[in-house]
Amino acid sequence: MNKNTKALYDYLIENHSTIAKDWMDLRYSKKGSHYSADAQPEVAQRVESQMNHYALLIANALNQTEQEMKSEVIEFTNQTAVDRANSNTSIIDVSEQLRNFRRVFWKQIELFLVTNSDTITIKELLEWEKTINMTLDFIFESFTTVYMSVLMDRIISQQDVIRELSAQIIPLTNEVGVLPLIGVIDSVRANDILENTLTQSVRLNITTLIIDLSGVPMVDTMVANEIFKIITSLGLLGTSSILTGIRPEVAQTSVQLGIDFKEIPTYSSLKQAIKDLQDKKAKSQK
Questions:
Q1: For residue 145, what are the contacts with CB-CB under 8 A and spacing of at least 6?
Q2: Computed over its alpha carbons, how large is the radius of gyration of the chain?
Q3: Could you read off the pLDDT of 234-252 as tens digits, one per residue?
Q4: Residue 251 CB-half CA count within 13 A
Q5: 223 contacts 216 by C-beta, under 8 angstroms
Q6: What's the pTM value of the predicted model, to 2 decimals?
């Protein structure tokens, strides 16, 4: 590290808290964001502490190899990105605040240049620009990588919950249950429905399962095949199946596609199926 770079490094270390404070002064109110000017005091204090740390990371880059800089940045962004992702702070907020931080950081360097311009060369200034902006860019890159990873993990987890909840058997009696299917059924969801249905049927000791299709907008060959697969698998477990809610347009499409439901008890509505089961049970008890 040459004399001028050492002077800049010392100056930035000495003024890192000023950089963080100047950045804090640029904040404005934005509901839910950790960067909001009216964020809770403990949040604002934590964010300011983090920005102090970032100012030090950037200053340290002047005295490090690129690999050393990246190692330190990654270690810290792994913490701050998770912190932001677990709040209502959007990636747009992050990008905007990084731009503000870049502007504040370079404003501090301008103050340094004012008092040291006579001894600083163009080559030194270009080297500083390269190092500092590369560090700032890498901070955003690594931050975004971790931030998006947290969000994707959350989305996948939520999708798993949604898929599980979208194939829930509702017990009507000790032996009879209803499986209301809602929405479009693709091959991935069909496999989830099959697995969840078999598991729940065994756990609930279901002997008769009513599969209600009134919430399924389209029944094509793939959907029909998956339904047959569910019914066949249930049969192997000793559970009989009933289909309800096949709308006229779905029935017409099914016929055109050569899909045959005639071997399976079928009702136009769930109400009719339940009434028929009740009537059959009443007759058997006489």
A1: 81
A2: 32
A3: 999 999 999 998 777 666 6
A4: 12
A5: yes
A6: 0.61
